Amino acid sequence: MSQAEAAHIANAVSAYATVLAGLLTIAFARMMTRQPGAWLAVYVCVLVTGVATVWYHGFGEPFPARVADIGTNLLLAWMIQVAVVGDLYPGRGGRLLNLVVALVNLEYILTFALSGGQGATPLVLPFGEFGGYTLGELLLIVNCFIAVTLLFARRREIHPLARPLLYLSTLIFFAGLLLSTASNSRIDLGIIAYHATWHIVGAFGFVALWAFNEMRFSLTEGEHAEEHEERADETRLAESAEIQSPADREQVFSY
User: Fold this and answer.
1) What's the predicted TM-score (pTM) here?
2) Lower CB density within 10 Å: C or N end of the chain?
């Protein structure tokens, strides 16, 4: 078996890790702390991206599957931005950023789809024999950097106990970024299939992202519950004082 054939099989099989990550995060989001709807949409996009990746790598990498693969990846990265903006950027500026990024992504996907896949997709940032990035891959990286920047710019608004999971999720995705620099067909030392490993690392990254959200939303929900209980106690004490009879009050003061 050639290196290219081995890489093809590894890429196709490892793509199922992304599918499983989508299924798990959707299930966790429904069974545990209810997260905002935008984050549930993110986890659905993880599942859709995984299916597109299986199609692309598992069926000979046809051009329509290539369009679906990069398109769903861009959709996922943009959806993360939308969720972050919904959490931490309630003003008009955040919505404008989402719109601009969406239009840029859509323009690229349409242009790429209409090209018909004539010839090999050129690398705009080559790394010699090791691999490199196409324009679509660079655009995906920019999308991810925007989402990370948005989160870190508002990290003081994130519960301190949840921040370590934010750092962990970011570290995992940066590890995936380094792995993604390699060619799809490159394997070193007989077992280091870079692109396939990127699929697996990315899948764990999405689960870590869910864990980060689970931590911060559950902590916020717990704080709100405590505040509600404190207000309820204060209300009960006030009501008790109001209904107390004058005779009872005189008896209290006599002590």
Assistant:
1) 0.85
2) C
